[in-house]
Each structure stands twice: as structure tokens, then as C-alpha cells.
Amino acid sequence: MASSPSKTVRPRSALQPPVSRKPRLFRGQCVCVRGSAFVAIMAASRVKYSVLLPTYNERQNLPLIVWLLVRSFEQSGYEFEIIIIDDGSPDGTQEIAEQLIKIYGSDKILLRPRAKKLGLGTAYIHGMKHATGNFIIIMDADLSHHPKFIPEFIRIQKEGNFDIVSGTRYKGNGGVHGWDLKRKLISRGANFLTQVLLQPGASDLTGSFRLYRKEVLQKLMEKCVSKGYVFQMEMIVRARQLGYSIGEVPISFVDRVYGESKLGGNEIVSFLKGLLTLFATT
Amino acid sequence: MTKLLRCLWSLGLFGVAWAVLALDPLDLRPLPAPWPQVLRPLPAYLLVSFGCFSLAVVGFRLGTFNDCEAAAQELQDQIREAKQDLARRGLRL
Ligand SMILES: Nc1nc2c(ncn2[C@@H]2O[C@H](COP(=O)(O)OP(=O)(O)O)[C@@H](O)[C@H]2O)c(=O)[nH]1
Ligand SMILES: [Mg+2]
């Protein structure tokens, strides 16, 4: 898919356009592209990355993740915005977010809260409505996902002209920190089962550190109905069905230092249910 | 076609082929003497092989799961740096 001729029309990067070869494309024309349908390329338009940060009781983590994000983007030089979607956290996460807006500016940090805890899937949809970037980066706010990998996501995206770049704990230098043997065994077993049943062509289906083209994410959000980990799996499976290309970046996942995980309940049972549902319906 | 259907199809095709060749319920004698006997335990062999393969893969990946000590240490240092810088910029926790 990545090599389909229609896609090669797209510029690798609006930052460094191959001016000599196809200058026509940079005068505000529209190019139709299979898969993502329609891409408008404006003269002098800069690529912008919108980071969606869903938070629920992340008072301690939020300033740290934002600090790391800002520093990473300032070093790499890419244009960015950080959209915080807080679901009325009782611990005062929003008050911290307000302070961060004062420090870094309301063009860089956007707080788009919701009244009560409505779940992760809809938090992404809510955040995406307010995103002005051409690419959306989804990550957890609990410091498990390190912003230092974002420049690598961007590099891989450009290199393969991918629609999605997914972080992976299961490949190359990827890995996890702070998991005991039991949790690692469950994770590896679940991953193997997923690979056998769904053959998704991506090595980490339950991770949630990913970069999407905005229009691709919009399309996928319309299609995906699952909750929790299954939602992340469904995104990749549907992406494959729709013919989107997926690149991967090995990431180190460091278990949260502050606060506690919200994905509780019986994770294994709901994971298996979701996996079998995807197996039977896709 | 869903993945489940595709899987059932393949299993069904394999099952029919195996039954005709190994059990020969219609008495067609498609294979000469030793072969039906040899083929009879094939599904069990395959099942066990796949089980062993799965255990080996999961075991190997479990043993080689990266621990990312360096990343965790680096994060700790950066958290300290971030806290100092944020306090300097006037963040009240
Ligand atoms: N807005 C919003 N954020 C949530 C909700 N549930 C979890 N989060 C955030 O989503 C991210 C991942 O959640 P976490 O509890 O760490 O899940 P885990 O890493 O799978 O254990 C964190 O940044 C949470 O604050 C929710 O209902 N609403
Ligand atoms: Mg987490």
C-alpha cells in the first residue's frame, strides 16, 4: 500500500518540499489519494502535530509530561499543540492545566475538559474536534509514554509516508519497565494470541502511543466501537481493512510512577472477549 | 469473509482431505497401503507441534523482554529537572 503510485504524489514533508520535481503541488491544489481520499496542500502551510492528552486524576503527572513534550518539540523544531482532555478529575488536574497555559501560552496548551468521566475513546473524539494539526499524536499522560520518541515517530512517518505510526513494546529496543514476571507473561501470551488470530501486521495492538494522519484518525473513530484495550486493537484492525499503512517505532514503556491505573475491572476477560469478537466479525 | 470463517474454511478443507486420505470412509482407496496409517495421527501431531511452537515463542519472548532500566533512570532524572524548572517558572503544585 505504501508503494502505490497514487501515494507518491504526496510530498514527504511540507517543511522540505522536493521543489524541483513537483512544484505544482505547492500552490494550493488538491490531490486525490486512495485511502485517505483527499489532501489539501497549501502554499507555505506548515505541518503541525496535535498531541491529545486524556487525563483523569493526573495532577502530579500532567506538568511533567507537558514539560517533557514542550522540551522535545522545541528541540526538534516541529510545530505543535497539546490538547488536554480532562474528565472533571476530582484531584484538581484542571487547575494545574490552567497554570500550564499561563506558563506556556494558550496557543501551545489547550484545555478542553468534560464534565464527568466518560471514558478514553470518547475523550479522543472530543480532543480531535479541537485539534488544528495535520497529524494527531495520542499518548497517555501518566509518563509511561516518553515524548522523546515523537521525533522518531515523525521520522518514520515521513520515511514510509505512513498513515499511522504505532509505538511498540515488543520489537527491537522496545520494552517495559516495572512489570513483574506474571504481568510480562500475560502481556506476551496475549500478544501472541492476538498475532495468531488477527494477523494484524503490527506488533503492539494494545499500546496507545501512536501518530495518525488527522483524517485517518477521524475515519477510524467513526468505525470503532470497542472500549479499553480492545479499542486500541480495533483501531489497527480497521486501519488494515481500510488499506491504511502502518509503521512502527520501538518504545520503552515505563510503568507509571505517580497515581494509579484507571483501566481496572477484569482486564483479561474483557480483552479475550474483545479479541474473539474482532476475530469473528472482521 | 471474517477471520473466523476463513479459519473454519481452512480447517474444514484440511479435515475433509485428511478424512478421505487417512480414514477412507467411502472406501475409495486413494492411497497405497502404509500411507493411511501414517496419516491418521497427523492432526494430533500438528496440534502438539503448534502448542510446542507457541510455548517456545512465548517463553523466548518472555525471557528476552527488555527491562528498560536506563529509560526508567533517565525519566527519574528528567522528572527532577522538570520539577525544578517548573517551580522556577512559578508552577504551584
Ligand atoms: N479524559 C479521560 N482520561 C482518561 C480516562 N481514563 C483514563 N484516562 C487517561 O488515559 C491515560 C491511560 O490511562 P491509565 O489509567 O494509565 O491506563 P493504563 O496505562 O492502561 O493502566 C492516562 O493519561 C489517564 O489519565 C477517562 O475516562 N477520561
Ligand atoms: Mg498507564
Automatic annotation (TrEMBL), chain A:
One GO process term, biological-process aspect: response to oxygen levels
Can you tell me which residues the record assigns to a coiled coil? Answer: none
Location (main, coarse): endoplasmic reticulum
This enzyme's EC code(s): 2.4.1.83
Query: Which InterPro entries does this one have?
Result: DPM1-like (IPR039528), Glyco_trans_2-like (IPR001173), Nucleotide-diphossugar_trans (IPR029044)
Region feature Disordered, mapped onto this chain: 1-20
Top-level class of the enzyme under EC nomenclature: transferase
> In what residue span(s) does the Glycosyltransferase 2-like domain sit?
50-220
UniProt catalytic activity: a di-trans,poly-cis-dolichyl phosphate + GDP-alpha-D-mannose = a di-trans,poly-cis-dolichyl beta-D-mannosyl phosphate + GDP
Q: Does the keyword Lipoprotein apply?
A: no
State the needed cofactors, names only: Mn(2+); Mg(2+); Ca(2+)
Q: Which UniProt keywords apply?
A: Endoplasmic reticulum, Glycosyltransferase, Magnesium, Manganese, Metal-binding, Transferase
Which compartments does it reside in?
Endoplasmic reticulum
Q: Which GO terms describe its cellular component?
A: dolichol-phosphate-mannose synthase complex; endoplasmic reticulum membrane
This protein's pathway: Protein modification; protein glycosylation
User: What are the GO MF terms of this UniProt record?
Assistant: dolichyl-phosphate beta-D-mannosyltransferase activity; metal ion binding
> Which function does this protein serve?
Transfers mannose from GDP-mannose to dolichol monophosphate to form dolichol phosphate mannose (Dol-P-Man) which is the mannosyl donor in pathways leading to N-glycosylation, glycosyl phosphatidylinositol membrane anchoring, and O-mannosylation of proteins; catalytic subunit of the dolichol-phosphate mannose (DPM) synthase complex.
The subunit structure is:
Component of the dolichol-phosphate mannose (DPM) synthase complex.
Q: Which family does it belong to?
A: Belongs to the glycosyltransferase 2 family.
Its protein name is Dolichol-phosphate mannosyltransferase subunit 1
What is the source species? Anolis carolinensis
* Gene behind this protein: DPM1
UniProtKB/TrEMBL annotation, chain B:
- Chain segments annotated as coiled-coil in the UniProt record: 65-92
Q: How does it sit in the membrane?
A: Multi-pass membrane protein
- Compartment(s) of residence: Endoplasmic reticulum membrane
Q: Which residues form the signal peptide?
A: 1-19
InterPro entries named among the record's database cross-references: DPM3
The record's keywords, sorted A to Z, are: Coiled coil, Endoplasmic reticulum, Membrane, Signal, Transmembrane, Transmembrane helix
Q: Name one Pfam family in it.
A: DPM3
This protein's pathway reads: Protein modification; protein glycosylation
Which PANTHER family would you find in this protein's record?
DOLICHOL-PHOSPHATE MANNOSYLTRANSFERASE SUBUNIT 3
Q: What does this protein do?
A: Stabilizer subunit of the dolichol-phosphate mannose (DPM) synthase complex; tethers catalytic subunit to the ER.
Q: What is this protein called?
A: Dolichol-phosphate mannosyltransferase subunit 3
- Species source reads Anolis carolinensis
Question: Gene name, please?
Answer: dpm3
